[in-house]
TrEMBL record:
Keyword Transferase tagged: yes
EC number: 2.3.1.16
GO biological process, any: phenylacetate catabolic process
Native source species: Haematococcus lacustris
Broad class of where this protein is predominantly found: other
Protein name: acetyl-CoA C-acyltransferase
Enzyme class: transferase
Residues in Thiolase C-terminal domain copies: 316-437
Length: 493
């Protein structure tokens, strides 16, 4: 039986109310009538000191594999650069890090694990700090963040470093070894072997995403990225990389500093993209112009408890609220965000309308367009600074890169952006999503929607009706749809 409006409202307020319970070392909490709009059912005045927050999120430039400025830079240099930049920015004693988790997809597993460990030494991190890798394909960087957040919540440590890296110039996508012959007996398993471009074609065909729709989406990605780069929006998140480039003919090495993404094409047009041939099917619609770029890059995100951030005097860039990974049909793996985003939002007690900014990985224009349309998301909220079609998709780093881009964009918007989502599809048929909240303790009503009638000082989850005693004052509050939660929730605090 499908839950009705009353049950949905009850579930939403039940989740949100957990954040209002008394916490150690915090002042008395109170609920007041507010105009916080759809972002929350209350205005938060104090916060739990054990919640997981992000205090730094940085990335290298993203450059074209084989041709870009990082083509001759190995994973060690990429990772050590972002590790050191995070430490320099926060002035954190590296010995305080409880663990380092690095997302990576293509690098040989044992080799990449050693490279991550070596990179930590290059960055001045002591031997006592452990390192490991994680591989959930395109969501590996986001999975690394979720793993660190989960470990902090579990009390394993209070400070952790999550990262992602991919050097697609040196480790291109390829299947190693043979295939189990029993795969012919399992149709879903066969879908795991489809090239990603074929799954894009499957999404386009199954859900009617036209070639023109895909090309128009790709053009918008480049235009937004070009505008963001011109406005200097990426400077806060990009760490320049001191490296070298090797001349392909002479093998001469030239020292360089790479400080900008090199895949953005400001002059791209729908007409130009229309002239490109389909890559994966003769009569298909997926081209090199409306698919993500093959890319080199790395990113790192420093997480800790709010208590640690306060103790160290570090400003909070964002709060980690929820994470979900879900499975979908491998043959149409691109629909992953359409399944994962609702799951992550449900964990956070939110809906798509509550989210101010989305970073949805543009693996292919077909799947990104479908996911946005399926969820009914206003596209103006999605990838406001462009996505992987323009910036690139270094597989293991993408989740961490998207998180950095999201949190810096939310900070620029101030209190007009409270909640953000990072999501992507995942090869072999999965999707992942995480919800982040802006770092400030108080939503200063800047994102409130206009309301009508007498209830202009309440969130959408409440209307005037009954009497609720709040910190000694009488206020008429009853939950939307006559779900009588107010008294029960408030008397817990």
């Amino acid at each position: 039986m499908e839950a009705g409006p009353s049950a949905q409202a009850f579930n939403r307020l039940s989740i949100l109310s957990k954040q209002m319970l008394p916490v150690a070392d915090a002042q008395q909490l109170s609920m007041q009538t507010c105009s916080a709009g759809d972002s929350a059912a209350y205005e938060r005045r104090t916060t739990p000191l054990d919640e997981v927050v992000i205090v730094s999120a940085l990335r290298t430039p993203l450059t074209k594999a084989k041709r870009g400025g990082l083509r001759d830079t190995d994973a060690i240099e990429l990772l050590s650069t972002v590790f050191k930049a995070v430490l320099d920015q926060t002035h954190l004693d590296p010995a305080a890090i409880g663990d380092i988790v690095v997302g990576s997809v293509l690098g040989p597993s044992s080799q990449r694990a050693n490279e991550a460990r070596i990179a930590s030494f290059f960055a001045g991190i002591p031997e006592e700090v452990p390192v490991r890798t994680v591989n959930r394909q395109c969501s590996s960087g986001l999975q690394a963040i979720a793993d660190v957040a989960a470990a902090i919540r579990a009390g394993f440590y209070t400070v952790g470093l999550a990262a992602g890296v991919e050097t697609m110039s040196s480790t291109p996508m390829a299947w190693e070894g043979g295939i189990n012959s029993r795969i012919s007996e399992f149709p879903k398993a066969q879908g795991c072997m489809l090239p990603m471009g074929v799954t894009s074609e499957n999404v386009a065909a199954k859900f009617g995403v036209s070639r023109r729709t895909q090309d128009e989406f790709a053009v918008r990605s480049h235009k937004k990225a070009a505008a963001a780069a011109a406005a200097g929006k990426f400077k806060e998140e990009i760490v320049p990389v001191k490296t070298k480039v090797i001349d392909l003919k002479t093998q001469a090495e030239t020292p360089v500093v790479i400080s900008a993404d090199d895949g953005i094409r400001a002059d791209v047009s729908v007409e130009a993209l229309a002239g490109l041939r389909a890559v994966f099917r003769k009569d298909g619609s997926t081209t090199a112009g409306n698919a993500s770029q093959v890319t080199d890059g790395a990113a790192a995100v420093l997480l800790m408890t709010r208590r640690e951030a306060i103790k160290r005097g570090l400003p909070v860039l964002g709060i980690f609220r929820s994470f979900a990974a879900v499975g979908v049909d491998p043959a149409i793996m691109g629909v992953g965000p359409a399944a994962a985003i609702p799951a992550a939002l449900a964990q956070a007690g939110l809906t798509t309308d509550d989210i101010d900014v989305y970073e949805i990985n543009e693996a292919f224009a077909s799947q990104a367009s479908y996911s946005i349309a399926k969820l009914g998301i206003d596209e103006s909220k999605v990838n406001p600074n462009g996505g992987a079609i323009a910036l690139g998709h270094p597989l293991g780093a993408t989740g961490a890169r998207c998180t950095a881009t999201l949190l810096h964009e939310m900070r620029r918007r101030g209190r007009a952006a409270r909640f953000g989502v990072v999501s992507m599809c995942i090869g072999s048929g999965m999707g992942a999503a995480a919800v982040f909240e802006a770092g400030g303790e108080v939503d200063n009503l800047m994102n409130a929607r206009a309301t009508t009638g007498p209830n202009t000082q309440l969130s959408r989850d409440a209307v005037f009706d009954g009497i609720c005693d709040v910190a000694g004052s009488s206020q008429s509050i009853i939950a939307k749809d006559s779900v009588h939660l107010c008294s029960a929730v408030l008397h817990q605090s």
